[in-house]
């Protein structure tokens, strides 16, 4: 497959690259990077800076009055994010809130949804869980006075999770898995595992860090108890951006749930009654604690509006075409080279990302050479995995071609 063919595909199937700022290359033959690391940190939408400046200007112009008089008043600001976030993950607005960061939200949700009792104490995660999730569940086990080595069960595949639930389901309090695995790019059978976990009497939560903005989600219909995701990977809201939370409708307003609360947990209409006892709304807003950082919410709002306009169905279709194209290019390379694909072949079992195992030499060193010699930005996970994620919003077929061309030179 030739460079000219890649250019033709870009003409017939263009994305929305003009809406983003693509970093300049610091090596290679092209002015811009071929940016394939949007699964790690998404690129900046052009609209973000201007909209963020509007929020800053309102602070300068209005001071405290901005809470109610800003162009986008700060007091109810987070509500601007709720509906687009809900549509993104297939949830009801009442089930969704944007707040905090991902691991913090996982903890706040486990305060409500990890309630070990009697024999039912175990937490099932995947063996290749992102370390933050692993540390979070282990520390939750300790918080409840349990031994994390006995409480946390690490399983390798979705099938093993199903088998374990069949055999040991009545010992499982919580199943907490990544919807799309960060390392392999595998998309798990979220509805199937959710149904099996609930049938076994366990609570099921999903970490959608690599799934939100990558694959279509239907959290409400799938019946997950809770989910959380970050906004700086496929959602392009900037480093450390505020994260999202889903709590299924059946739990909203349940007075028996434990929850950590603050003044933003109480119903907004009663907040300034300054009452000593909170009256939480029957919505995911009840999980909020503090008044939110407006200048961190702005970039999430800008990004979610873009996803809302385009729709995940459209993005997913282009994503399948781009990733399939990159897969074809890598298939031409891998025979005779110390490279193999870790990601499932079936487009229904993966998102945008393809992961390569680098069987000789260091993945990090390879990523450095791709960047500095070719202007191709990928992401290495020590010791031997290179992740490449063409993002349907802004990646091009030519970016994929450049990555494959650079790999053909660098790996022999
Ligand atoms: C990216 C990622 C995180 C990062 O956690 P933060 O709290 O945002 O720092 C956690 N879990 C998974 C699965 C991730 O992919």
TrEMBL record:
Annotated pathway: Amino-acid degradation; L-kynurenine degradation; L-alanine and anthranilate from L-kynurenine: step 1/1; Cofactor biosynthesis; NAD(+) biosynthesis; quinolinate from L-kynurenine: step 2/3
Segments passing through the bilayer: none
Keywords on record: Hydrolase, Pyridine nucleotide biosynthesis, Pyridoxal phosphate
Catalytic activity: 3-hydroxy-L-kynurenine + H2O = 3-hydroxyanthranilate + L-alanine + H(+); L-kynurenine + H2O = anthranilate + L-alanine + H(+)
N6-(pyridoxal phosphate)lysine PTM positions: 233
GO MF annotations, alphabetized: kynureninase activity
Top EC class, one word: hydrolase
Cofactor: pyridoxal 5'-phosphate
Family: Belongs to the kynureninase family.
NCBIfam families on file: kynureninase
Name of the protein: Kynureninase
Taxonomic source organism: Prauserella oleivorans
Taxonomic lineage from the root: Bacteria, Bacillati, Actinomycetota, Actinomycetes, Pseudonocardiales
